[in-house]
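Interim report, section 4.2 (structural modelling).
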Amino acid sequence: MRKIVTFGEIMMRLQPTGYKRFFQTDIYESCFGGGEANVAVSLAELGCDAVFFTRLPDNALADACIADLKKRNVDTKYILRGGDRLGLYFCEKGASQRPSAIIYDRKGSAINGIDLSEADVDGLFSEAEWFHFSGITAALSEKVLDALRALLKEAKKRKITVSCDLNYRKKLWNLQKAGEVMSELMEYTDVLISNEEECKDVFGMEARDTDVNKGRISAEGYAELAKAVMKRFKNLKVAAFTLRSSISASINIWAGVLATSDGCFCSKEYTINVIDRVGAGDSFTAGLIYGLSKGKSPLYTVEFATAASCLKHTVEGDFNITSLAEVEALMSGSGNGRVQR
Amino acid sequence: MRKIVTFGEIMMRLQPTGYKRFFQTDIYESCFGGGEANVAVSLAELGCDAVFFTRLPDNALADACIADLKKRNVDTKYILRGGDRLGLYFCEKGASQRPSAIIYDRKGSAINGIDLSEADVDGLFSEAEWFHFSGITAALSEKVLDALRALLKEAKKRKITVSCDLNYRKKLWNLQKAGEVMSELMEYTDVLISNEEECKDVFGMEARDTDVNKGRISAEGYAELAKAVMKRFKNLKVAAFTLRSSISASINIWAGVLATSDGCFCSKEYTINVIDRVGAGDSFTAGLIYGLSKGKSPLYTVEFATAASCLKHTVEGDFNITSLAEVEALMSGSGNGRVQR
Amino acid sequence: MRKIVTFGEIMMRLQPTGYKRFFQTDIYESCFGGGEANVAVSLAELGCDAVFFTRLPDNALADACIADLKKRNVDTKYILRGGDRLGLYFCEKGASQRPSAIIYDRKGSAINGIDLSEADVDGLFSEAEWFHFSGITAALSEKVLDALRALLKEAKKRKITVSCDLNYRKKLWNLQKAGEVMSELMEYTDVLISNEEECKDVFGMEARDTDVNKGRISAEGYAELAKAVMKRFKNLKVAAFTLRSSISASINIWAGVLATSDGCFCSKEYTINVIDRVGAGDSFTAGLIYGLSKGKSPLYTVEFATAASCLKHTVEGDFNITSLAEVEALMSGSGNGRVQR
Amino acid sequence: MRKIVTFGEIMMRLQPTGYKRFFQTDIYESCFGGGEANVAVSLAELGCDAVFFTRLPDNALADACIADLKKRNVDTKYILRGGDRLGLYFCEKGASQRPSAIIYDRKGSAINGIDLSEADVDGLFSEAEWFHFSGITAALSEKVLDALRALLKEAKKRKITVSCDLNYRKKLWNLQKAGEVMSELMEYTDVLISNEEECKDVFGMEARDTDVNKGRISAEGYAELAKAVMKRFKNLKVAAFTLRSSISASINIWAGVLATSDGCFCSKEYTINVIDRVGAGDSFTAGLIYGLSKGKSPLYTVEFATAASCLKHTVEGDFNITSLAEVEALMSGSGNGRVQR
Amino acid sequence: MRKIVTFGEIMMRLQPTGYKRFFQTDIYESCFGGGEANVAVSLAELGCDAVFFTRLPDNALADACIADLKKRNVDTKYILRGGDRLGLYFCEKGASQRPSAIIYDRKGSAINGIDLSEADVDGLFSEAEWFHFSGITAALSEKVLDALRALLKEAKKRKITVSCDLNYRKKLWNLQKAGEVMSELMEYTDVLISNEEECKDVFGMEARDTDVNKGRISAEGYAELAKAVMKRFKNLKVAAFTLRSSISASINIWAGVLATSDGCFCSKEYTINVIDRVGAGDSFTAGLIYGLSKGKSPLYTVEFATAASCLKHTVEGDFNITSLAEVEALMSGSGNGRVQR
Amino acid sequence: MRKIVTFGEIMMRLQPTGYKRFFQTDIYESCFGGGEANVAVSLAELGCDAVFFTRLPDNALADACIADLKKRNVDTKYILRGGDRLGLYFCEKGASQRPSAIIYDRKGSAINGIDLSEADVDGLFSEAEWFHFSGITAALSEKVLDALRALLKEAKKRKITVSCDLNYRKKLWNLQKAGEVMSELMEYTDVLISNEEECKDVFGMEARDTDVNKGRISAEGYAELAKAVMKRFKNLKVAAFTLRSSISASINIWAGVLATSDGCFCSKEYTINVIDRVGAGDSFTAGLIYGLSKGKSPLYTVEFATAASCLKHTVEGDFNITSLAEVEALMSGSGNGRVQR
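Predicted structure of the assembly:
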């Protein structure tokens, strides 16, 4: 089994218990999460050899973060230590018409001062078959972007497959900057993942017959969009989209689309009573990497990735604590939620 | 900005955690609430200058109650202290076919012994533009009713707009007494708010084509009812209704109707996954007072009040901890609950 | 009022708080439960004189279990003490497409070593009118099965009505063994209760036009099945089925069917937002025993049992903490979940 | 085994979690308690046949209270139902130099309207050997005092031993009224229990060489005091005192003195790290009743009562959830708290 | 009553529940705190008109922080809004030989970018009689120090009394820098507060016969030290010290010394079972300001300040939620922690 | 760094929150623990390469257990999977005179069916320098004892140092059997650890001048005892004792003694406010193994082991989550518990 490496920031999440607002309680639940870390954990839960690379400060909170990754079977030995602080984010869980609210507090976090010369890049990539990053990592700071570029070059040199989740965060950069940088990084990217909105935001490329705010999403539109994206970025071999129709913060409809040179494949659609949707996109990405790296068919892959990420919506925290058997049971079954005794 | 004054009882609420029944746990969550206090808090959250008037005992629980109102920016300086006890209510949260159950324990609470001669009525009403009360306050005790009448007279003398939420509580008085007293108090009232049932209970006036228990509610019926109410009570300038179709304790459909001399205006309808519906009517009233006191159009006002109270259903506790921006976002948007990052 | 006796195992249930998975938290909520104990508690809540018979170890956990039964008004004085351990089960609450997962840890529990010669069987059955057991009890161990057979013979000798919930648990025995034993025990059984799947599993008898995994359930099919079952097992006077269409772990459709020599009666159908569905079948059984033992009509009985068990889905824990008044309110009302003040 | 009957009020206690003040949290822990109820529970835990008599309202909170007593094996079948409310008290747990603070909210509670003509007094006292009450009960209301007097007369007629815990509460009555009434009730009393302060408060009789606020307590002084009390109230056969030296809210020194016609007996002294001291006096009383009613020696009795109440300080809530074996282990052992495996 | 103004940083504190270490739980309790904010809250609890000045970001967490200050009656209307983040600190509660551990995460917090030109300094100081700051504020950033110097000059111009808590934090600056800056700021300072170590750290001035790590503290030594400090810094009128002998994280001995031109006054000494000692020094400072600003005698003042801060050790969180009556009760009483009913 | 291997059972611990008794709450806190697992975790926390060997069932609870060990950096790859159940123990935390109570529920747990032929013994011991076991492991079952004997033989063959914690559990076997087996196993043991009682229980060898129940412990007596033990069991090179004087469940005095051929060394003595003392002996053992395996002096080793285990008493759960730096700080410092900022 060869390694899958992901690179990005992991943060501590603090969330008032239940559906309480920030003003309403003094009890917070904490977990750790961040796009690429979530992907690594999902992959490890699925039985893959996942490695997470980042930079974390040298304090007890970061120790606890690393311990949590170890608990999830993620290889943490290449993580750099240094810098001032662990990034944080505060999350208030929404319900029905009240959306979840996130306050990021990641400025000045350790990863922003990363210097790749301190890292064991050779060790990191030895025996690796896959490298994953997201648009968030690209947006964090110039130093992080430099490190990312260097890692991408090294990955391509080693013929490692590269995947990118577009993941646009408007508080980190603007549309123009995002468009320029992400277009550049597409040169290194084999597999692109996006949600129903970001391709328009970042690349100005839009699915027809789709109005997310009105809950109208056309799978065909996304199939065409995938083709167009692959045409524009020549190195892309796979483009995939998660399609979320958000009925409310409590009820979402969820599906996936995957396009390769063989054609475009749509998953079944799930209507979900949401427990925690943060990290759903990352769990889709992990499912996709799982399927592609194991040589599964595109249809299996998109069904697998969508089922895995459907289950993520029912799991608290950023991480998709879900086993291979559970994902396959949902893929093949009816998702009727009968008690497993 | 001129003051909005509300008068009524505020109680401590004690509720078993989660969906536990009274028999099932020894952990209770507590908050404070009561019709007019809820209105004051909602208005303060919307940025208004809200003043809450009541009588509370001189003990540490009542201190905590006042502190909580201060936390919410409500002016508490006219509150009288004295009497034996803080009113309480115990609430068991319902789900699906099991309704929420409320046990009131407000007998002998401090407000029942109120004596207006101890109050600074002049200070209370100076710079005030609005006075709000509900049928609950009128029902509490003779002393409270005397104080209420005196305040209403003073308010009218000062040309302060008066609103009344009909709010019938069968455990406090009977239909006949309620009908007599509330009819009398309509003489002082400019704006009447009722829910889908109370107008029939208290005034014997009913919307046609409506059967609440069957979940059938006709907005047109309520438009006619509003007209009829305003015809009967000549001083009324506005009549408004909240329309709840309770599918179950977990799922409600919610809308509002507002009638003025300009006609009758219906809000859009929201299907809500209920987190906590106690205080929803009060948050509608607050939205209404907000709109009318700011000179907004009737349509804006009813949409605003309905959106505000839709959001209340997603907030734990009696108080609608929701900002102006959040209400306007729901009014203008789709309420699809996408994460706000 | 004559006694209703139930016999089986009661276990301690341990469940991560909220929707947390076993991996995710160190806080567990505990309650007690087990098929026949759940029936006894439900009956006691409905005002019946319920007696629970089992064997429990002589330690503080079993003391707490007995205390909990006493709290619920169940007569515990015939319970034997001895053996090594209290049975346990761990439960992870599912949501949406993620099913609840149960890990039983009942091996070697006290009941498995039961020896009826230590019990006061005469006291247990004196003044009793009903004896209830389930397929789980029959499957536990040879000693338990021996005790069960002896109790059944004694019950028949005393002309006590016997009910049996088929309750097949694949981790306790296999289909063949279950079929043989349960067929034998039908000789003693007057009233059989089964869910939508077990009759097929245990007796190889299936309702037509029904595919549980596809959510297709035909009440007519179950009526025919009931007739066939009663034809095969001549002593049966009543056969009843709970019909669950599991849309997801969060949403279930629930109904009941009851067949007697007078014909077949279907309850209304409830769409339920599930809080906790463990023990729902037991609460149906209790409702059935309540109706039949009180001489209610078959239609009342099946509506009562279905309404009672609908409410169970909204109550945390194994026990259906629901009063007679609450069940009757749901039967006669609309189940719209309006607040009871 | 003959019954021990206690009569008084039971309340719901609400306490902020941990050492939080009323202002600091919205989470409350609840239990039930009240002087004579605590005595009944302690006795039941020790294996006695304890009956608690009171009046409680007919609502779900009082149902939960009765269920809790049943859980503790107390006979609740003579409890009257009616009246408006369950008494409450709010407790803030002190630590070190900060004392615990209690806010009573018992005014207008159900017991205050008690009418003995509704009670089954004959059933209550049949097979009873002991009747216990406290000064709190005497102070509640005229109706309660009337009922108490009637019960005392009936008890004396039946030759039932009567014990009284002096328990002076300054918020319920004043020193003069307390002195008059309690002196009168001493006519019916065989066994008097008091703490280190109350005898002075109520009867104006003081132990020499004792200054509670300075932590100076003389066991000899209390022996003399006991003699003097028994001289003054001729019917008294036993007088007992609990002696608390409160170093701080966290650390107390605790001992007991028991005087009979045979002389005066002092227990060993315990230095206690306090977990919850509410109800300690009641657990001493229960220990005393246990010893005297079982015919134990005075020395055994005072050691037993003191050990039982020492353990109460380590148990959360009003009730002394402690077994006979645990009390005897402390009496005979060293109280060194080694783990029991 | 004239205003007391304090200036500094307020942070959100996050602490694992109970005595759990950072690695051990995902549940955190949160409160707000910071040296000068703690002083303001203590003063408000004592009935003073306290104003807290700082800069906070414009997000919901800072809103919650301000709401918490309002709840405590602190005037927050001069607080500036802007900047990136709210300062945080993580605290792990120690016990016995394991010390509490604090991880500060205050870098880049809003106050560090403060610009006094945006503030209403005139409003802030109008009707003020006292201004308080600490060495932490001086250490935060050059901008904060600039603002502090400007406020101090303005305060002196207005003849406002200035107090300074030396409060050395080695993670914010080094000894040399601290010595230089704090010496300079002594020019503006009337009242200096220090603990048993800081005077040595910052000014190189040490009490004789004192070895903190050995738990040896000499009140006389501190009296001499106070004199020496006042001699060196000519503008000082009062110097006060808190003297902590830390037996362990669970048990501390606590006393205060106050020196004026009239002589040196020592408080009584308290042995404390510690609940939460963070903020104890601030509560001493608040007690000192209370006494001095009310014109109390030096002895009363030091006893008051020490009693107030003794009680702080028993209160969870940074804020000393303790009333005037409670402090005076401890001063005059025995601190024996008897229940207050 | 060479591996330290430990072999034994790890169980899930379930404990009512706070100081609640089993009867009092439905909330349990869970952790994992067991003698040799605790040693492995402590060693890993100190930076050693610790390997834990056991057999666990193939279910999600055991998965969670393994994940927890990974979180603590323990190598779990040699753990066998199979068998029916995870061992459990229930713990009720004592306070003051009330001892902690433990109910073991380990019968039939997976380790009891261990078959070493399924294990990779060669891998387990490769690069190992130390093997540790305890008397509990020897007592579990014949299969476990067989496996233990085989491992001990293999360890000796490989010249691996062997340590044994005597750890007598009376519920697992009797004194005679324990004495025989443990005497036999001393043939393989280089380092023996015992507490103040077990040497007498198992080997009938007692320290003079010591009465544990009276809190009288003589370090000299243990020095002599150590010599005598080493004389009797010729292969022993080191004998160590933990000496606990249990003042109460809340306060313990703790020290250690270590004897080698160089003499006998006593640690300083700690008076501890106990948070959780379960696992204290194991943390002493881990400290001892740390010191001896790193070639530290006997005095350093016993001081280190005692300081480490002193800190364990302040940490919740079985595991001693304490770093090398923290232990050394306590050894060299005063243990005064000052806040670490």
